[in-house]
Design goal:
The complex is a heterodimer.
Chain A: H1 6-21, H2 24-43, H3 47-66, H4 70-107, H5 125-140, H6 150-158, H7 171-174, H8 186-219, H9 226-258, H10 275-278, H11 284-295, H12 304-323, H13 327-356, H14 361-384, H15 388-399, H16 412-435, H17 437-443, H18 445-462
Chain B: H1 5-30, H2 35-41, E1 48-51, H3 61-68, E2 72-74, H4 82-95, E3 101-105, H5 114-119, H6 128-137, H7 139-147, H8 156-163, H9 180-183, H10 199-213, E4 217-222, H11 227-230, H12 236-247, E5 251-253, H13 272-284
Parallel strand pairs in B: 1-2, 1-3, 3-4, 4-5
Helix pairs in contact in B: 4-10, 6-7, 10-12
The chains are: A mainly alpha, B alpha/beta.
Amino acid sequence: MVFNSITFLIFIGLFFPLYFSLKGRARLWLCFLASYLFYGWWDWRFLGLIATSTVLDFWIGQTLEQTSETNKRKRLLWLSVAVNLGFLAFFKYFNFFLDSFQVLLTNIGYSGELGSLQIILPVGISFYTFQSMSYTIDIYYGKIKHEKDWLRFATFIAFFPQLVAGPIVRAKEFLPQFERERKLDYERIIVGLGQVIWGFFKKVAVADSLAPFVDQCFASPTSFGSLHLLIGVIFYSFQIYCDFSGYSDIAIGLARMMGFDFPKNFRTPYFSKDFSEFWTRWHITLSSWLRDYLYIPLGGNRHGTFHTYKNLMITMLLGGLWHGASWVFVFWGFLHGMYLVIQRLFGTYWGQFLQWIRTPKVVRQLINMALVYVFTCLAWIFFRATDFENAIQLISGLGNLESFNLSQVTNKFWVIKGFLLIGVLLLIEVSDFRFDYKSLMVKSVAFRVASMSVLIWLIAFMGTFDSNAFIYFQF
Amino acid sequence: MKKWYWLIAIVVILFVGDRIMGKLLENIVLSSQFRYSRMYRGDAAADILLVGNSRGLIFYQPYLEEELGVKTFNLSYNGLPADLTDALVKDYLDLYSKPKLVLIDVSLCDRINKELINGFATYASQSERIKELIRNQDAKVAGGLEVSWLYRYNSEVFQRALFYKNKSDEDWLLDRKITEEIKAKLTPDYEFIIKYPKEMPKQLGETVAYLRKQNINVKLVLNPYYPPFVDHITNLDEFIKDIEVATQMKVVNYATAVQKEAYFGDFQHLNKAGSKVYLEQLIKDGVIDFDNK
């Protein structure tokens, strides 16, 4: 079931009245069953996979707490990590590794075929396995206590608002919230509903309207002029941002209405002034997960410059691979790793240079923002491309400035609509810093009614209703 | 309970605002100089009705009108499919007296175009036939159009109506020359198949029968392609034959009638200069000829 579907609207229309009419354990059961229904709607066969992760990690969590023997604890932790990553490796990466191995064998002269398996990628597997693993790892390190109630734990793993595309909510953030009594809260409903509508605007109006132009550019980069391709890349940067942050907004908003607080997943990332900042603004729950469960355990920045760079690269390469079973994702991670390393190497000199040429602070910030955006877009080309050839074709097309004119841009309808929507998006996001729309919505009924109505009108007037699945579902 | 009244206010404002803005946009659309706006408001009476997809846009009206001293009206639109053509032609005949000639470029049989039909929802308030087409192909979209009037204007067609709000759309055709990059695509193994759905020639057949039943002079032509490109179209003869069978009319094949490279914008479209040359040819050949009724 996807959020931008009639089925989901019916589902949610039935769920919320029931949710608020029930209390205690009955409500928890409802959350659990609704989550399994939500996921099973896509493919019921994969419910077993979530159930297995849930049962195993629940048991491991319980046993870890009862055991003080170090070796046994380690074995249990490894079992949890191995099973969770094993599922991920099999369902997401098996064919990728097999294909890569095949290429390697071919290169060294072996001519046989290794074949491949027809494996369906279970939606959201990368998200819920990370969520589940964080639970056992945190228990192992004594950061949290074992959850005694299996139903709470199972609901935490399968919680439908964020099950398939995050945000990745850790056990220590989520499980304690079950203790809280959740009533129908006026303020939560307002802010949550506002965020859900905003998420739908980002997804249905912005991301899905930009998608056809982007698809066209990447499908056949050699057919278009450089200006057309440049617009395609800019559109993709906003498509992926609005698609993913739109999903996060809907998830966070729904959870808020239900009485749960989820961490923020995006904070206007394209306004970042350097790449470290970018990763504190883009997919925050994944980058902080990677920081806490990969970068820091690897040694972080504690063992000198070389090891810091090495750890950064490993984290970014694996972060890239997390997104998809393809070398272009790994390269995307590599590029971001390089950006971080280069920034650490030359960032100070760059800052001094900008000061030396006496640029005002605001101009310096704007230059840095523009640079981060341009290099982020360059990395997005690899992220979106089907393979390296496709990415290189697009980059070559961009470099061919001969056709950098408006007459070579086709489908101007999409271009006008796209830029209009990006304009509305940026206007709202930038003015939010000044006006804080969330609190305005709570305080002023007129503003609430007007803003929600305007967003819904904009969705009707400019939305694309082909029910495109969210991009991050494939991750 | 009182504090929840804003939810009711939102529903009411959403509905009322949607209707008001929908009506406002309808007025804006109908006051546009865009061809369908002119047609539905009653400003498109013509002696010659020109019909086609983007290849039909090369029936360059200002030139024809100047040459022949007649009034023309072009119903062509990028990717216009035969079923939507049928609705538009019939709507035209409902609104105006019979044109002396209807000239149709048969390339419009080359596709089904659900997206464009949905896009024509912009004119759904003016046409039961467009509404019917949308209803038949996509009940969800049809439902959406009833729920929100604003949704009717969520399309390229609306944007074009805005673009042509205060200016004529009669010179809407390519004004560029085919580029070396485009030509380079015609490698020896390049193959182009007209993937026409079989129901589209049949649909055109129904439109033609409807026109002929009303004693309207109909001419079917296949507009020119870039000549080297024609050699790569593997099923052109079959395409023409299927249309002739479905319409029981001869298709005058002008696929290679214009030879000069400078007259093309790309493989499938003449540019403005090429369109004039082509129209001269049509007049000379008597395809556009009022004595030939």
